[in-house]
Design a protein that fits this description.
Elements lengths: L1 H22 L8 H20 L11 H24 L8 H34 L5 E6 L3 H11 L8 E8 L14 E4 L3 H8 L3 E4 L9 H8 L5 E4 L3 H5 L14 E3 L6 H21 L1 H14 L5 E7 L5 E7 L23 H8 L7 H7 L3 E3 L6 H10 L12 E3 L1 H5 L6 H16 L3 H17 L4
Parallel strand pairs: 1-2, 1-4, 2-3, 4-5, 9-10
Antiparallel strand pairs: 5-6, 7-8
Helix pairs in contact: 1-2, 1-4, 3-4, 9-12, 13-15
Length: 456
């Protein structure tokens, strides 16, 4: 409705004001181009809002944050519409362009903000009155959980949107304080089944200080579940700024966000991967051909080497490389390469130094198994070994593996499991700070390393 009304406002302004000043007549007629615009413009705006992830989690929104978002999106979208529709108008003065843009932007922002404020205000009222609620569970069973539950249920009779169906314990006690108020659903190890059976939408973690050693295990169990996760912060969380003002009125809670990047950045990242990979495969085809010929001539055996790796969400795929080792290099079982590995051919050492052996992986990027920037994929065998030392290793499977990564830039290739665990720190830092800007930064570092031949 906002898109239609704002486009109509622009059309009427152009007909009754701009054309009247230009041609000396005022005649409002809704032409065929107007009706085409009525179909196209709303689709454009709905696409923009979908790509920028505006429609995610529509029930729990900050009205002030929505207002700022609406202003920024309206401004950028209106600039695009201005160049697409307004700039080729016949006008009496160039100031008519500015007036047309101002009419369209202000009307679109006004109508969109008005309708959204009405909707979100109504939704907030329905949540406070208890008409909208989300199936929730409390993880924790004693003092902290009981205190938090009491606060949530006594917020001056205003509902917080939680329909608590029970609590989950992390210890093996027989009796729990929270049993007075909620049903005991079982131990935390049963969380995946509980979430599915009870159709849980929100999880609140309120465990005791003595139970904090179970936190990593709890979060790993919740990792791939479509639930909103909140927890009681400690002093460090508050000082570091992790606690947001909108965290449930007077009760500060840290929200653990599963979403690593906004949807629009994820879309742009994938587009960048596809376009860049296609260009590399086309423009560097002479280099590919040269490397293939030298690999074939320098050592008997196949040019390409393929190996099963574990990728996004645990899916296995074949990763391709130019072969840099002798044939049957792993006839005695899986082995990691080292700096002075005798299995590496003379030409293979040169390829590895300048990362030429990785070039075929742009095909993996094109097919969607990999990204240009992301944690390096590992074999299932080593993934299980690493997980024994660092259970959070599976966290890397939340994103597509990459040709290069922050771990590769800062650490390089790993020659044993301990080094893999060490490199893991950098990859986790990357995932926690994923953005297009950081991807560009990593690519710049990678290019410098390749040009200097510092590949490790």
């Amino acid at each position: 409705m906002a898109a239609i009304l704002s486009y109509t406002s622009l059309f009427v302004f152009r007909k009754l004001v701009v054309e009247a000043e230009k041609f000396g007549l005022s005649h409002l007629e809704f032409t065929q181009s107007y009706y085409i615009g009525l179909l196209m413009i709303p689709v454009f705006w709905l696409t923009v809002y979908h790509v920028t992830d505006f429609y995610r989690d529509i029930y729990r929104r900050s009205r002030l944050k929505d207002l700022f978002y609406t202003f920024n999106t309206s401004l950028l979208g209106s600039i695009f519409i201005f160049f697409a529709l307004i700039l080729d108008d016949s006008v009496a003065s160039y100031t008519d362009y500015y007036r047309g843009f101002l009419v369209y932007f202000s009307s679109h922002f006004f109508f969109t903000a008005l309708f959204r404020t009405l909707l979100t205000t109504r939704t907030a009222y329905r949540i406070r009155s208890g008409n909208i609620a989300f199936n929730s569970i409390m993880i924790g069973s004693n003092e902290k959980a009981a205190e938090l539950y009491a606060k949530l249920e006594s917020e001056s009779n205003r509902k917080t949107g939680h329909n608590f169906v029970g609590f989950v314990s992390v210890d093996n006690n027989i009796r729990f304080l929270l049993e007075k108020n909620l049903e005991h659903l079982g131990n935390h190890k049963a969380l995946p089944n509980i979430i599915q059976e009870k159709e849980i939408e929100e999880v609140i973690i309120a465990i005791e200080s003595s139970e904090h050693h179970k936190m990593e295990e709890v979060l790993n169990l919740l990792e791939e579940k479509p639930v909103k996760i909140k927890m009681i912060p400690d002093t460090y969380d508050i000082i570091s700024g992790k606690v947001r003002m909108e965290s449930m009125r007077s009760i500060p809670l840290v929200e653990i966000n599963h979403q690593l990047m906004p949807v629009w950045q994820m879309v742009l990242k994938r587009i960048f991967d596809i376009v860049s990979s296609a260009l590399v495969l086309i423009l560097l085809s002479p280099l590919y051909f040269t490397v293939m010929m030298i690999t074939k001539i320098s050592d008997k055996g196949p040019v390409f080497f393929k190996q099963k790796r574990v990728g996004f969400q645990g899916k296995e795929f074949y990763m391709y490389k130019f072969r840099s080792m002798v044939v049957d290099a792993e006839e005695n079982g899986p082995q990691l390469s080292s700096e002075n590995d005798e299995r590496i051919t003379p030409w293979g050492k040169i390829m590895r130094k300048y990362r030429l052996d990785e070039l075929p992986q742009f095909y993996n990027v094109l097919t969607g198994d990999m990204s240009i920037v992301g944690p390096r994929p590992e074999r299932k065998y080593y993934m299980e070994l690493i997980s024994q030392h660092a259970p959070h290793y599976r966290y890397l499977q939340k994103v597509r593996p990459g040709i290069t990564s922050w771990g590769m830039v800062k650490f390089g290739y790993a020659s044993n499991v301990d080094e893999m665990v060490e490199r893991l720190k950098y990859d986790v830092i990357y995932i926690e700070n994923m953005s297009l800007l950081n991807d560009i930064k990593i690519l710049i570092y990678t290019v410098i390393i390749v040009l200097q031949g510092r590949g490790k």
